Here is the input.
Amino acid sequence: MEPFTYNLETFSPPGHRVALLRQKCRSGGEQTLHRHDFTEIVLIRGGCGVTGIDAVHYPTVTGDVLVIQPGSTHCFFSSTELRWYNLMFRFAELFTPEELEMFSASSVYRQVFVERRPPGGAFAPLRFSPLRFRRMTDLMEQLADELNKTDSAAALNAKALVTLIVNEVCRIAPAAEVPAPERGDGAHELLSSILEFVNRNFTGRIDAASIAAHAGISANYLSEFFRLHTGTPLVRYINSLRVEYAQYLLDVHPEWSISEVSARCGFRDSCYFTRCYRAITRETPSQYRRRD
Here is the structure.
């Protein structure tokens, strides 16, 4: 039996060429195999589950973004209560040929949104850091507000917000692409538990032992598991979150010393903070502050 095909007009509000839905599914729920005639950007707001895209199954957790191209078959299963945004639009209808040409100048845009991968080769979920996730959530909520309006200014604002969302996706891809674990091995629940704990507590005194205790596994297995399923060592992931948060604090609190910023980001030593910051950004916190 052929999967059902949805079209954009089913979802888009009057006067708009964009649709945005806030959706949720109970634990153990599922959505049957289907496809669209439009591009879909899915942002996972909470919970975890498994998403199947063109016959490959990916774990999806809070902060993940999935780009589903027109014609791709997909479905999902929710391991816990799952909440997400569905952003739906057609590039060719929303943007002018000149604007599409500007998008296409980016190889990352072409890779994520244009180039058709073979069956089983869909672009895997992208994992946003907590700060970028909050930015994406803010953009989605702003877009939802504009789509509730019917004037021409709202349509222009909606288009601008879609542009910003597409740009955010392109900024983190493909470095943030998440590998797909073997189906049915329970990895998505464990990975979700680890990521949600780290993302909530990275500014505190967390280490491999406390994370492993939360997840109910050994510290050695935690390190191996995390690297295997994210492509990133656990310590590097935590330090990246802390450095990104440090940039935010350096911007909004110019009166704070480097040592105070370091402590508020979870670093025990300001010298180690500076080394990590330079390794990730190629400049010191002081250089960043002076440049800004």
